[in-house]
Amino acid sequence: MQQFERICEQHVDAVRAYVRRRAPADLVEDVVSETFLVCLRRIDATPSDPLPWLYGVTRKVLANERRRRARTAPAHRDLVWEPEPVGDGALAAAFAALSERDREVLRLVAWEGLALREAADALGCSALACRVRYHRAKTRLAARLDAAASFRPEPEGAMR
């Protein structure tokens, strides 16, 4: 029980922030509670560095919640769950154009501050696979940003 209490104390704020960036406000505490319930049930399987594992559990809890909501409210299947990057419309549009898989690896590294090895744990893949996913996601994001920049009209009155 002490191990569980220590994990909760150390990581509940990080898990809550992770969920806030991916789910509507009315779901945050339920998802966090469900995540730590899984942690309690699997306390003997919890790794020594539990945060990436907790993020992986939280991803699965969120996926289950999305499926449940889609079944109970089919008209709302396309709910936006995660906020887009704020402050840069081009970045937000480029980010939104990426696949969920690309967005998630970028979020884990950029928003959650995980190292690639830790992101791999959260994603349930090898460190090498995560490194490849991350590199490809960055490349696709950069390509979308470059494409958006090339389509920006010149300001009126600009000299050529």
Describe this structure in words.
The radius of gyration is 19 Å and the shape is globular. The chain is built from seven helices and no strands. Helix 1 crosses helix 3 (50-72), helix 4 (89-96) crosses helix 7 and helix 5 (100-111) crosses helix 7 (127-150). It folds into two domains: 1-83, Rna Polymerase Sigma Factor, Chain: A (Orthogonal Bundle), CATH 1.10.1740; 84-160, Arc Repressor Mutant, subunit A (Orthogonal Bundle), CATH 1.10.10. By secondary structure, it is mostly helical.
Topology of helices and strands:
Blueprint: H1 2-20, H2 28-41, H3 50-72, H4 89-96, H5 100-111, H6 116-123, H7 127-150
Helix pairs in contact: 1-2, 1-3, 2-3, 3-6, 4-7, 5-7, 6-7
Which key terms come to mind for this protein?
160 residues, mainly alpha, Rna Polymerase Sigma Factor, Chain: A, Arc Repressor Mutant, subunit A, 2 domains, 7 helices, 68% helix, globular
Number of domains: 2
Chain oligomer state: single chain
**Biggest sheet, in brief?**
none
> How many angstroms separate the termini?
70 Å
Fold-level CATH name of the largest domain: Rna Polymerase Sigma Factor, Chain: A
* Count of helical regions: 7
| Overall shape | globular
Question: Segments where pLDDT lies below 50 for 5+ residues?
Answer: none
